[in-house]
Amino acid sequence: MSLYLLALDASSSACSAALLRKDADHSECVARFEMTPRGHTRRLMPMIDDVLADAQLSASQLDAVAYGCGPGAFTGLRIAAGAAQGLAFGLDRPLLGISTLEALALQAHRRYHLRHVVTALDARMGEVYVAMWHCLNDSLRRQGDEAVLAPERVTLPDEETDWVGVGSGFTLWEQFSTPLQAAMTHHLTDLEPRAEEMAWLAARDFAAGLGQPAYAVQPVYLRNQVAWKKPA
Fold first, then answer.
1. Is the CB of residue 149 less than 8 Å from the CB of residue 172?
2. What one-character-per-residue DSSP string does 39-86 give?
3. Which regions in the chain score pLDDT beneath 50?
4. Nearest to 98 by CA among 224, 190, 217, 12
5. Helix count (H) and strand count (E) of the chain?
6. Whole-angstrom Cα distance, residue 139 to residue 154?
């Protein structure tokens, strides 16, 4: 059985779209990614058109739509949510909200084969959006809840070492605690959430029956405690 899934993201300074085609014998992901601060509204819809054209599909052939539901920049989350919900509602297709922090962890795992990953995005006002992950063979297991914290308040589980920090939150490296810095082998600040990883994560969730009606999927803000939680 084939799956055609469109994923969108505008949660950071980057803007991206990806079209995943998946069947029993072959999988292919066509993606667009650009660093477009303050250009998400202008670039997102053309990116959607581009990936559909590259995949030689029409929107009516999609089985599901996904988007980066947060945490992230408020305006960008609303832009992606509006586009994704509009598409899903108009096509009568299920919608899936994908964690930006989980997508970032999957990207780091696939690109650098990392196993213990701390994802952190700059939340402004001296705080970071943060989560911790164990990664193995494209499978991610989150350690604790996603949170918004001052960098000095971020702590790591005692039982593991060799953590690697990933994301724009680590531009605040000097503000993280000395024990955390000592537990990390290094940190990478130049990775941004991408729709490509969100498409793969959404395919996993779609196969598990987690697609929802467009109106039921809401952005995750964390700071405002307006959070949608995926059903268990």
1. no
2. -HHHHHHHHHHHHHHHTT--GGG-SEEEEEEESS-HHHHHHHHHHHHH
3. 225-232
4. 217
5. 5, 10
6. 24
